[in-house]
Amino acid sequence: MKTILVVGVRGVPEVEGGVEKHAERLFPLIADRGWRICIAGMRPFLQTGEYRGVALWRAPSFGIRRIDRWLYAAATLFKAIRMRPDIVHFARLESAALLLAYKLIGCKTVVRYGADCDAHPWTGPRKWAMRCAQYQLRWADSIIALTPALARKLPPPHKGRTNHVIGNALDRPERLQKGAGPVISGDYILFVGQISQKKNVHSLITAFRTFAKRHPQVKLVIVGRWGRNARRRQISALNDDRIVMLGALPRSKLAPLYQGARFFVNPSIREGHSNTLLEAISFGCPVLLSDLPENRDLRLDSKHYFNPGDIHSMASALHRAHANPDMFRVARDRYPQWDAIADRTIQVYEQLFAADTGLPASPAARSSI
After folding, report:
1. What count of other Cβ atoms lies within 10 Å of the Cβ of residue 332?
2. What is the DSSP letter of 42?
3. 3-class secondary structure, 305
4. Residue 201: what are its φ and ψ, rounded to 5°?
5. Pairing between strand 3-7 and 243-247?
6. What are phi and psi of 235, to 5 degrees?
């Protein structure tokens, strides 16, 4: 039985974040197929030692975020030295800052390449960690980009390294319907995600207030935790009852919000392969999204897209979707389920061992995103 150590996931289950959602859905399915998985997480995001057949290991912590980040990097390397996994799967680029050290102890390495990989400009110690990780990608055995647009930013594959495109997937609606969540009455537009500059929530609020001059009965419901430098006071100072801030909610509580929304909007200026957008599609919720290359890779009709840097474009899109939300629904069968993503990821793993034995391996299919 091959062993995989997953590095870079804060914790599972029900931990907010695209990386964490991806790990929660993907790795139990890989474990079901006969692989032994251990996720290295952090306090306070891991509460147990096992989740659906996946072992969970919690790195030591001092409770100071910046120190814990470096402590986590060192501790997971020592964990690998003791564990000797066959593969180390880096769930985010920053966690690959010590990739070469893992190679030197004999581990094969897979790096998940998402939105944060192109999040310039970085600052402080994280800047050097990200630059170091970017440089060490040349020694990775495989890189999995979430979208074709992200894959185009990778250095070309060479002997000993392969690049793949495997995105996220749709949830089965019943997976998100575990418990009752908040119910909002009346018409509302829904945003789910971190409240941060990269998610462009402040521009969405500005566009919504322009839209609401003609539709004063409509609310904007925002679900998510506050990010650093989120300008929270600026939103609070608006004192607008039509803007409903629900804070962070577990994914199992989101079903009634997706089902009741007139439509869902993703205004991001930086994105990978949005899990919340795919959740909205899973529930048949109409969707609007910014026209980033990564979002364009979803290959939706042009009516779904708007310019995230243009308030007029965003407000106009809100008017279009509100006038006829049924026109903005997306067929679920256009996108894969998580079982298919697990199979494609396993094909990437198998290729690494086939190269050692000289046996042919089935090619890893590109994700149909």
Report:
1. 15
2. -
3. strand
4. -65, -35
5. unpaired
6. -70, -45
d(CA 226, CA 201): 11
Reported as half-sphere exposure (CB side, CA atoms, 13 A), residue 318 has a value of 32
Taking 3-state DSSP, the helix, strand and coil percentages for the chain, each rounded to the nearest 5, stand at 40, 20, 40
Cα separation, 220 vs 223, whole angstroms: 10
pLDDT in tens, 307-350: 999 999 999 999 999 999 999 999 999 999 999 999 999 999 99
Q: How do residues 289-311 score in pLDDT, each as one tens digit?
A: 999 999 999 999 999 999 999 99
What are 68-118's pLDDT values in tens digits?
988 999 999 999 999 999 999 999 999 999 999 999 999 999 999 987 765
State which amino acid sits at residue 159: K
Predicted TM-score (pTM) of the model is 0.90
Task: Round to whole Å and give the CA distance between 113 and 90.
Answer: 9
Q: How far apart are CA 37 and CA 44, in angstroms?
A: 20
